C-alpha cells in the first residue's frame, strides 16, 4: 500500500514538474519543415495545429472552437508574411497569448520588425530542436536569446 501511495505521489510530482501543455498554431509552407515541427512539438507534449499559409492560419485561428496559447509562424509565406498574420489575428480578436517568429531573415531590421509586430522571439532557420524547446519554455519577462 505504501508503494502504491508513493507511486501516486511521484506521478503527481512528475506532472507538477512538466511544463504546461501548449496549444500551438504552427504556420509553415515547407511541407518537410512543417512535419518536423509537428513531430517535435508533439514529442514535447504540446498540441500542434498546422497551417501552410496565412489564409489557412486565419481560418483556423479564428474558428470559434479553437484557442491557441502560441503562434509559431514562418515569416515568409506564399500569401503574406508572419508579421501581417499576427496583426490580422489581433484584429479579429483571436491572437494567441504568445507568438514566436521563424525565418531565414536575420538582419537587425527583421528582428526589430518581429519585435514591433509582437513576436516574443525571432528564431533563425535552421535552428536546433534545443533552440525551439527553449523558446517554447521561455517565461514572460525573460529576454535572453529572443532575437538572435
Descriptive key words:
alpha/beta, Rossmann fold, two-stranded antiparallel ribbon, 148 residues, 6 helices, five-stranded parallel sheet, single chain, 45% helix
Report on this structure.
The chain is α/β, with parallel strands linked by helices. The chain has a single domain (20-137), classed as Rossmann fold (3-Layer(aba) Sandwich), CATH 3.40.50. 45% of the residues lie in helices and 20% in strands. The protein has 6 helices and 7 strands; from the N terminus they run H-E-H-E-H-E-E-E-H-E-H-E-H. The protein has helices at 2-17, 31-43, 54-61, 82-91, 108-117, 129-137; strands at residues 23-27, 47-51, 70-74, 76-77, 80-81, 98-103, 121-124. The protein has a 5-stranded parallel sheet with strand order 2-1-3-6-7, with helices on both faces. Strands 4-5 form a two-stranded antiparallel sheet. Helix 3 packs parallel to helix 4 (82-91).
